[in-house]
Write a structure and sequence with these properties.
Length: about 180
């Protein structure tokens, strides 16, 4: 019962920020792009936000929950199909390039805290060499890798999360996970 209540409360907080960022930044545009397997970029970001909060809650670590969720929701806000991206010879590969693209896209639309900026910019550590500067950033960095691994193998990924959001977002037709 505790876990169920905790999951709903966590999912509700993610839904509130998802709704706000969709209004302010058009975050739901991420649903148009595949991240891994059959998981959209939007569902991936929702999962990273949800499970990063779950990880720090489970470890009883104090953290800024709103900044963690907003940073996680925006961490892959790069808005292109990375499988199809054509790059000039001097342009960096997607793995190095997209945290900066996501940060620039987010900055154009919303005011970010320094913590949120750092979560987005540093989430590809250790591929990019500088680690996140916070426990929130480290959680997002770790959970992002685990989610990517899972999504690479899963079909119909995150069934619990999809069910939770089907209920929580029933009144928000502007948001879809694109599946
Ligand atoms: Fe990423
Ligand atoms: Fe990611």
């Amino acid at each position: 019962m505790f876990l169920r209540t905790g999951a709903m409360a966590r999912a509700h907080m993610v839904a509130i920020e998802l709704s706000a960022l969709t209004r302010e930044a058009g975050l739901s545009r991420c649903a148009a792009f595949v991240q891994h397997g059959d998981t959209s970029c939007l569902l991936h970001c929702v999962a990273v936000a949800f499970y990063s909060a779950l990880l720090l809650d489970a470890l009883r670590i104090r953290y800024d929950r709103r900044s963690l969720i907003r940073g996680a929701l925006l961490h892959d806000f790069f808005l292109y199909d990375w499988h199809q991206r054509k790059r000039a010879p001097h342009e960096p590969m997607h793995a190095f390039y997209h945290p900066i693209a996501a940060l620039e896209n987010a900055r154009k639309c919303v005011a970010l805290t320094p913590l949120e900026e750092n979560i987005i910019r540093r989430h590809m550590f250790p591929v990019t060499l500088v680690p996140p500067a916070s426990r929130e950033g480290l959680a997002v960095c770790l959970v992002d890798k685990l989610c990517a691994l899972y999504e690479g193998f899963a079909r119909g990924s995150y069934p619990l999360l999809r069910r939770l959001y089907a209920r929580l977002l029933a009144d928000s037709p502007e948001i879809s996970d694109g599946q």
